[in-house]
Design a protein that fits this description.
homodimer; 401 residues; alpha/beta; Molybdenum Cofactor Biosythetic Enzyme, Chain A; Molybdopterin biosynthesis moea protein, domain 2; Molybdopterin biosynthesis moeA protein, domain 3; six-stranded mixed β-sheet; 7 helices
């Protein structure tokens, strides 16, 4: 049996290499950028007016002039005008190009107009040359690198790409994922279970998590019957890069998943991790083309393994440059001494010192999803810890927003 | 001019009352639950076997028996069997119903079998009665409340609802949102801007943020022309509950948005907040049917106002029971003394003490989206602070995952 760190290392050494696809800009939110993005022009592209007011030639102000006849108006979106008579001014609007012959914008707050609004008077003695102008190219020069590939597109990146005219964007293509449950006790949601049956839920949980990550998946339920399993898995392997299975990996007489995956050419890289929950997790690959995450069928095990192993695998596969790590302080001592890494369900909040505090959720250990309703993530508590005390800090894996 | 707290109070007093709609379970991820969810049966619904092994009658073990002839097998998903001869055992699989006449499961790890696998020997003297059984109804009784309305559906809720047979779920209906940019200097993404023009980006940023929240929107660009604005806004008000505008709310000669909204029957509740950026933000309502968030056109202002005001408004409107508040520690002193609340862009990370630390991003103050590329959120720094020192804690508003 290997430990969590070894398991993670093996998984992250067997990532999927995504194709690069080009998609419309508007669909690129949360996708991983696969190209560097450059400016197509200076930022800003012209000397841009930053306040509503008047545009003047500063020499006149410096020479003592305070009253300026209004010669016209420079609106945003209109071609650049020229101030011909330097003793005059042009009204000038935020977002407009700075008129020729002017170099300074005085905002309305510092002005007073005559009744006819034909003459502006400056009520301020502290004006400096160049005020309220955002000069061409101050932020970026044409051709500058704006966004490096590997970034997850947020609204900011999307807006910046809009502003440089990128109508389509190169991003990592998602792998095709099949989610497969096994277990003959499972019936469909809309069925009334017999006394020895329960409804499926794992595939819905995993589908929901995948959807949140922007991935679609196909869903399958396979019976605990060796030939059927083999036939179905071979077929699924043909058009999916990733298989996420739940159930059938333990010591039961009908736990055929490891054996069948092997028969299908999926080579075992490990089986069983020193962890609780999720010990019987099985992981394998086929010809660098497929990976199979075969999680234990216990809903909490499947859920934790998905977050602890599948998500980091996906992030690395998608070639994300930087992934945030979370830490939280344990709010209460707990009793756990087994030589296994313990994934402790917690509910977190920020205290007034900006510390992320984690309150253990004392589940019934039943492995039902119902145990997860109060939790928002889990702490990873290394095995063999002497005692697990209030105030200790552990890595935290969030599973709610 | 009002302050941030007053503005927030006014906005949160003018929420939208959502319709309740019923949607398929599989689409309910991230939606707000509008019904309580109860168990339809005990949890677990039968005495469930938790480990693979053999099912025995504990009296026999207590009386000294260690070898049990295997009389059959109780598989998961198969009807309950009966152990007739108490000196024998049944092999028993995880997830199966406990066979009649047995009360204890001994896992394979503690067993040894003869070569023919017909007799199991227990190699453990510490077995207790009832081991490895998850008894019917231990977690929940039929009819118990599982999930309260007001919860955001995460994968855990979705899975629990699957397990109680909810194929469809009542959730808050999203408001219909129109995103409107104004400003004659703006051209479409696929156009080559003239020397005094720039491409639109605000509506794409807002659309992306709305999409991340699960909302769709319609996008509009309106020219700075009063009659056209009025006609278009009246039309948009007919089939949208929410208008998010950017631009046209400042002191410019073509800033018609407040006046036009008023003409359209949208009553101003405030105009201008003591904050930077985003001072000229205008907010109004029409007949308790529409709300209009008219943000300043500066991209950073629009972005900050969306996160600081629109998102909390939406959360409250959707009737979410509990919203997480974030706090972060400032990593560097900064120079800001104006009597305005300052939204400081920062990049955060967790240190090894589980403290969320915020590094100020020194922008060029230009208000371009490019300034947001390095940041992952902003701190809200109250106005009139003496000095803003490293180590101080402020509320943090994240804008990346």
């Amino acid at each position: 049996m290997i430990d969590v760190a070894e398991a993670e290392k093996i998984i992250l050494s067997n990532t999927f290499t995504p194709n690069i696809i080009e998609i419309p800009l508007e669909l690129s939110i949360d996708r991983v950028l696969q190209e560097d993005v450059f400016t197509d022009t200076d930022f800003p592209p012209f000397d841009r007016i930053m306040m509503d007011g008047i545009a003047i030639n500063f020499d006149e102000y410096e020479n003592g002039r305070r009253e300026f006849k209004v010669a016209g108006i420079q609106a945003a979106g209109k071609p650049q005008q020229t101030l011909i008579d330097k003793t005059e001014c042009l009204e000038a609007m935020t977002g407009a190009i700075l008129p020729n012959g002017t170099d300074t914008i005085i905002q309305y707050e510092l002005l007073e107009f005559n009744d006819e609004k034909t003459v502006a008077r400056i009520n301020d003695e502290d004006i400096e040359r160049g005020r309220n102008i955002h000069n061409k190219g101050t932020d970026k020069k044409a051709g500058d690198l704006l966004i490096k590939k590997g970034v997850i597109v947020s609204a900011a990146e999307l807006a910046v790409m809009a502003s440089v005219g990128k109508t389509s964007v190169k991003v990592s293509q998602h792998p095709r994922v099949a989610v497969i449950s096994t277990g003959d006790e499972l019936v469909e949601i809309d069925q009334e279970p017999l006394p020895h049956q329960i409804r499926r839920s794992n595939i819905y949980a995993i589908q929901a998590e995948l959807n949140k990550l922007g991935l679609k998946c196909s869903k399958h339920h396979l019976n605990d019957e060796k030939d059927e399993l083999e036939k179905s898995i071979l077929k699924i392997l043909e058009d999916h890069e990733v298989l996420i299975l739940s159930g059938g990996v333990s010591m039961g007489k009908f736990d055929f998943v490891p054996e069948v995956l092997d028969t299908c050419g999926v080579k075992k890289l490990f089986h069983k991790i020193k962890q609780k929950p999720g010990k019987p997790f099985w992981f394998g690959v086929r010809d660098q083309k497929n990976v199979a995450f075969a999680f234990p069928g216990n809903p909490v095990s499947t859920f934790m393994c998905f977050h602890r192993y599948f998500k980091p695998w996906l992030m690395k596969s998608m070639e994300i440059a930087e992934v945030k790590k979370y830490y939280a302080v344990l709010n209460d001592s707990i009793d756990f001494k087994a030589p296994l890494t313990y994934f402790l369900q917690v509910k977190t909040h920020f205290d007034q010192n900006a510390n992320l505090c984690a309150q253990p959720i004392v589940g019934r250990g039943s492995g039902d999803h119902a145990n997860l309703l109060e939790a928002d993530g889990f702490l990873e508590i290394p095995g063999g810890s002497e005692a697990i005390k209030k105030g200790q800090v552990f890595r935290y894996f969030p599973f709610r927003n």
